[in-house]
Amino acid sequence: MSEHATPLAHQFEEPVQQQEAATLGMWIFLATEVLLFGGLFLAYIIYREQAPLAFSEASGKTMLVPGTINTAILLLSSYFVANAVHLTALGRRREVVLLLLEAILLAMAFLIIKGFEYHHKIEEGLFPGANFHFAGTQARGVQMFFVLYFAMTGLHALHVAVGATILGVCAVKILFSRYPARLATMVDVSGLYWHFVDLVWVFLFPLFYLISHRS
């Protein structure tokens, strides 16, 4: 088997068929993830229609600067992962590992900033529950905003952590593989997952951080 040939599982006749099957499997999995987040986005739309003023007021309580920084972090991480996918096929082990590690570090930075935001919201009494406190006539709608905020961004943060773990596994396997180019399919499908995670944040960011800033 050549250096660049992907190891062929017994159920496949050729490497191209195996790669297409892996990619299709990831797309099917991502479709289920779309359904998961889609239900939450639908809930957001329904409750925002019922309490638009409360949602706008609550959005003003989010931390725009950290949210913007996190958006830039994830977009940059996607750039690194896309380059890693390309270079893996060329067998350039060192560059791929460095790119994946950079993406993982950015993911960790994202989670740290998100944790800081959560801590700040809890300190302000904006975590939904018995200790929730908001001085204003829109308290009920504001609390629903933060129910969705913590649920949706928390679920997304979990996906970031899972994605970073997957990238870490890819980096370790490539580091110790004799023929890193053979792992191109694994890195490719992992990259698809990471790009999906980033895309979800692109929708979450304006919904939670920007609606109070529109003209």
Mean pLDDT: 89
State the secondary-structure class.
mainly alpha
- What would you report as the Rg, rounded to the nearest angstrom? 20 Å
Largest sheet: none
Estimate the strand proportion: under 5%
How far apart, in Å, are the first and last alpha carbons? Answer: 61 Å
- Spans of at least 5 consecutive residues whose pLDDT stays below 50 are 1-5
Helical content band? over 70%
Task: Lay out the secondary structure.
Layout: H1 15-50, H2 52-59, H3 64-89, H4 93-123, H5 139-176, H6 184-210
What is this structure, in a nutshell?
This protein has 215 residues and is an all-alpha fold. 77% of the residues lie in helices and 0% in strands.
Structural commentary:
With 215 residues, the protein is mainly alpha-helical. 77% of the residues lie in helices and 0% in strands.
